[in-house]
Amino acid sequence: MRKWFLFYLLYSMGTVFMVSQTPTNALENNYKVTSTVIGKPMLLVAQRVNINKNNEKDIEFVNLVNQLDSLKVFTTKDRQIVDEISEMVYGYVHNRGFKEYEIDKVYDEDVEFFINGDSDMNVADNLVMFVKERRRISFFWNKQRYTTLTLELYGKNMDLKKLPLLVEKMGLPEELNRIVNLEEK
Q: What does DSSP assign to residue 103?
């Protein structure tokens, strides 16, 4: 009886840890990927830096940060890793039931937003932004260079129209500003 209880306890703990992981967690330790991971405690510190309580934009920023749980940004230029990240992102958002939104392609850059939350386009619990950029290098050779950027925001009832404040205050990628022009795909 004791063995079964121990087995059941270990099995249930293992499944809890596996469910709480996202596929991009494997990227955090990859030396070919630049990663930035910010948890809730660091977000709370960020909301206290250079904040004017009389400024409406600063108050909106503080309210937005209070809605966030974590923030992850991954970038790479390695072609093999770009393909792996693409597969990870598309598999993750498909399995979790994210809605796909797409911004028009600008030059050689594809920016896609995936939102998980209620049916309202302005509020979300989770957001994944995926940017895939292709640049043709034609100096002495004709080949393409790929760059990818993945941004993940986790929280509760985030106001998507206020996310550009994160770009302004925290220096996040400027592609996040395009979220105000979202259209369902």
A: P
Residue 55 included in any domain: yes
Instruction: Please report the pLDDT score of residue 76 as a whole number.
Output: 86
**How many whole angstroms separate alpha carbon 168 and alpha carbon 115?**
21
Maximum Cα interatomic distance, the chain, rounded to a whole number of Å:
72
Determine contact, residues 103/178, Cβ cutoff 8 Å.
yes
137-153 residue pLDDT tens:
445 444 555 678 888 98
138: CB partners within 8 A, 6+ apart: none
d(CA 168, CA 25): 26
Mean pLDDT of the chain: 76
Q: pTM of the prediction?
A: 0.77
Span 72-87, pLDDT tens digits:
988 888 888 888 888 8
Is 6 inside a domain boundary? no
Q: How far apart are alpha carbons 131 and 147 in whole angstroms? A: 8
Quote the tokens at residue 3. Answer: 């063995």
Q: DSSP assignment, residue 52?
A: -
Residue 115 structural domain: 23-181
Q: Is 16 part of a structural domain of the chain?
A: no
Length of the chain (residues): 185
The tally of domains found in the chain comes to 1
- Token pair in block for residue 137: 């290098």
